[in-house]
Design a protein that fits this description.
elongated; 3 helices; alpha+beta; 2 domains; 128 residues; 4-stranded antiparallel β-sheet; 61% helix
Amino acid sequence: MDEKETENDKGIKAIAQALRAGGTLLHAACPVCDSPLIKIQDKIYCKVCDKEVLIYKDEKELPAEIQKAMKKNAAKTSATETSITKTINAKIEQLRVKLENTDDPDEIIKITEAIDKLLQTLEKASES
C-alpha cells in the first residue's frame, strides 16, 4: 500500500468513527481535500484534514478581517484589469491611426483583423 492509500484509509476510518460516535454526514465537501464533512454537535469537521470547517452562507457573515482581505484582493484584481484595458485601448488607437493612414487593401485587412482580436480580448477582460 502506498502512502496516499494509507492516508485515505485513515480518513475513511476517522469519518466512520465520527459517524458511530453520533456525527452527521453532510452534503458538503471539505474545501481543502474534497472529503465529506461531518457535523458533531454544533461544529463541522473534516475528519480527513482533522480540522474544523466554518461554513458561511453569505460574505456578510464572514469575520471583518476576511471581508477586508477579500476587498483588498478585489481591488488588486481591478487595478490589473484597468492596466490591461488601458494597454489594449492604446493598441487599438495605434491601429486606428495606421488604418486611417493606409490605402493598401492587404494592410487594411490585417489592421481590422488585429483590431477585432483586441476588441474580443477587451470584451473578455471586462467580463472577468
